Amino acid sequence: MNVTDLLNSVPTGLWQGGRSAPSESGRTFEVLNPATGRVLTSVANATPADARAALDAACSVADEWAATPPRRRAEILRAAFDAVTARAEDFALLMTLEMGKVLPESRGEVAYGAEFLRWFSEEAVRIGGRTATAPAGTGEIAVVKEPVGPCLAITPWNFPLAMGTRKIGPALAAGCTMIVKPAEDTPLTMLLLARVFTEAGLPPGVLSVLPTLDAPAVVAELMNDSRLRKVSFTGSTAVGKKLLAQASENVLRTSMELGGSAPFLVFDDADLDRAVDGAMLAKMRNGGEACTAANRILVQNGIREAFTAALTERVAAMEVGPGWEDSSTIGPIITEKQRSSIAALVDDAVAAGAIVRTGGGKVDGAGFFFEPTVLEAIPDGARIRREEIFGPVAAIVGFDTEDEGVALANDTEYGLAAYFFTENIGRAQRVARRLQAGMVGVNRGVISDPAAPFGGIKQSGLGSEGGSEGIAEYLNTKYIALPPA
Ligand code: ADP
User: Fold this and answer.
1) Positions of E strands within 422-460
2) Distance (Å) from CA 378 to ligand 1 centroid
3) Of 245, 298, 247, 303, the residue nearest 431 (C-alpha)
4) 469 counts as catalytic
5) Above pLDDT 70, what percent of the chain?
6) 289 with 158: CB under 8 angstroms?
7) Is 237 touching ligand 1 by the criterion CB < 6 Å?
8) What are residue 482's DSSP bridge partners?
9) What is the pLDDT of residue 1?
10) Does residue 485 carry a pLDDT above 90?
């Protein structure tokens, strides 16, 4: 499909009641292509009144959807998986256009994102419960699982499909209705997904999508309404804290996937080639715009120069360009604002004495491109040692002992992902346990898997997405006390 036909197939209204509809305000906003800085299309700009209408719809079908046989819910999810997979090239190109990542990575995200629909279609029919005889023999204890009720998902721009399906899949499998507030920079993928879901047989009202430039007001309208029962958020820790405070008003269930500052440790006994391959993935995949991205590359001093030289060679060979061009291996940053904040972190580090091995600045010309960069000798006070970079900048810091490396890795308020490389089995088992993170990759630069629980500790979040843990986030536990059998 060419770009014009593709954009014409994407609904540009709000997705409400199983169809595309304008905002009650009649307002729209523009979606940009970050590789050119030009407008791709405009979409409806939801207001609080639109949000209320979406919640009315979600509530009116909530009981019916909860009572829909799990097998039927599973079949709809599976049909949606098949439909997304059949349109994989369309979804991939759409993500490349609105978010910027290179096409092979967009294709990877389609496979990963669709897999949440298949995985949770399989989980929908395995929602268990349990029974037990009360120890005193006074009765039977029955434990059943019930959908939490209407949910709100707030998603970020860096994985426009997968961050939606990771929430929609388990919610629908559990029997919950859902309203998605996609990121304002990348609403198109979620709108196309909603249409695909409706075509796959999802009843109107079960899933709504509300793009908006006024996220705080639209989200507050929903969270202040006691009919909403859950909010699932992926985004920055700062916004997550605000949402947690707001969620306290109606005591909402919450799932929070927040920021990260993943340490990437390379020990002297690592396999160098494997560690460099892992670093390229953990750092440069998605242009470094991932909460799991290696934020602090900590390298034991015996292998540091060899590792830094090899990584620099690989990073310097990357081809910066529009994601749809075959030659490109890294696309643009999402916005000029984001690009400037990456540049400011690099400039601050360099002013403090860091050495630039390659890259270091913005790429001149159209679009929001930034040079893939390797920095080393970064002084302790530099902001890049503590803040989330969210861009293609590898920040390398040396350490001497295992204790020192682990202490550096854990010296952060975040605790999402951590990676380390060693060929020593004893060290592998020890360090995996010592790292304060919700997810640890051992000799691997990518860890996400729909069948595994994704989630952080400390200020990186609450709850897990994916795996058998993921559906539990959308289920309440009810205890039914029965008389003795
Ligand atoms: P990022 O830094 O990745 O853009 P944000 O946390 O700013 O992360 O945004 C993630 C999502 O949260 C987006 O969908 C955005 O619109 C939404 N968002 C931002 N601020 C608020 C807010 N005050 N209330 C509700 N949602 C918000």
Assistant:
1) 439-442
2) 30
3) 298
4) no
5) 100
6) yes
7) no
8) 140
9) 78
10) no
